[in-house]
Amino acid sequence: MTSEPTVTPAAVAEAASSAVPPAPAARPSPAGRGTRDERVTAVRLHTVAVTRRTTWLLAEVRGSDGTTGWGELSDLPGGDPAAPLSELAAGITGTTWGRAVTWLDTHGQRWADAPAGATARLTRRTVLGGLATAVADAAARRAALPLGHWIRRAAAPPPAPAGPPDRAAPPPSPACAAPPAGAPRVALYANINRAMTTRTPQAAARLAARAVAAGFRAVKCAPFDGLPAGDRVGAGLEIARAVRDAVGTEVDVLLDAHHLVTVADILSRSEAFAALRPGWLEDAAPLDDVTGLRRLRDALGVPLAGGEFTGREQEVLPALRGGVLDVLLPDVKHAGGPLPALRLARLARRYGADVSFHNPSGPVATAAAAHLTLLAGSALPLEVMFGERNGPAGRDTPPYFLVDGAYVLPSGPGLGLAPLPAPQVLSADGGVTP
User: Fold this and answer.
1) Considering the chain, what is the average pLDDT of its residues?
2) For residue 254, what are the CA distances in angstroms to 4, 198, 328?
3) Does the structure show a pLDDT above 80 at 167?
4) Cα(46)–Cα(59) distance, rounded to whole angstroms?
């Protein structure tokens, strides 16, 4: 694990590649500066190399009162995170924790959405998501509250969008309506995709069987990844069938198309897709292709999921209003932090869609997503990566807080991860242990 130098306002001027900086008028006024014992003083970027495929990027915030918070900005679509993180850090350094939360959720969101290419905007929003999570973690720890309880107080219900919902919202899961005493658990599903170093039915079947043996009751694969374009649909269906055969009929199989096959491709094999009885089919068509999504839903009769890169409510409203999205998959990183991710989840619930947070992530984002899962009141499982190896002799990731296919929320305040273990523990074990 390597650490970047502390990010300070002076570092902003030295950043070579600049995204769109916050307007000077958007910066907190001197009247909003914190007192000596409660101001934000530093932001640091940490890099944890897990496997050849996976690197965790962690944001750490520190305050003059000794408070520390952690966030995750992994899976950036491109570019160096140091420059945009420096820009955001300049906007909160010296402010109170409460002002930092508000500033990131208002001016930070506008900064992330400023005109630019799609990749640049997603990069900025992911960096914002990591820093906003870190600040929320610190604020919750200062309040001596678990992150979910702190967000419950901080997040006002979103304004109702224009137009009535097309479907009645499902009732919240009773177990999630209020966190029970003790250690709440969040059901998980095992994403085996990154562990598939060879894209064969046999490799997929072995990993899926291991996941079930470890206690998972749902397994996700991306069967079309890494396959040649020639007969990608047919070869991918063979992988998906191998997974279904390996786990049996009592375990959910989730399929992620990753937009690698077209609506026409899927419709041409609709019976084969339907025969797999998937728990959902993910990223089969863009969310703004309401017609395509409706054709798939009508032909296959299986739930459709998507929205992992969504950051704004306007991006999901067409599919939600059209009643063609069954499961929204907001990501706490890509959505811009826990507050906007929760707003997206609430919006989906209002329109009758369920929620499962997208989370092919490390320990910090997993903890944040687990807290949000309880708040969102969804009975669907949360994503976690399964079977990745940290080197030839490394342990499977992630070993942190997992018991029989469930995430056990740690009992501490905030995310419950602080103080985070030493860097060598993160690197050696590939996860955080309690």
Assistant:
1) 82
2) 38, 19, 14
3) no
4) 6
CB count, 10 Å around CB of 62? 17
Q: What is the pLDDT of residues 212-261, one digit of tens each?
A: 999 999 999 999 999 998 889 999 999 999 999 999 999 999 999 999 99
How far, in Å, CA of 174 to CA of 53, rounded?
38
pLDDT tens profile 289-315: 999 999 999 999 999 999 999 999 999
CB 194 within 8 A of CB 360: yes
Maximum alpha-carbon separation in the chain: 65
Q: pLDDT band for position 169 (50/70/90)?
A: very low
Question: Could you give the CA distance from residue 405 to residue 403 in angstroms, rounded to a whole number?
Answer: 6
Cβ neighbours, 10 Å, residue 98 = 16
- Name the region of 120 (left: φ>0; alpha: ψ -120 to 50; beta: rest): alpha
Q: Which residues pair with 48 in a beta bridge?
A: 56
Type of residue found at 433: T
Q: Report the alpha-carbon distance of residue 36 to residue 230 in Å, rounded.
A: 64
C-alpha 296/C-alpha 324 separation (Å) is: 9
- Total residues found in the chain within this entry: 434
296 near 285, Cβ under 8 Å?
Answer: yes
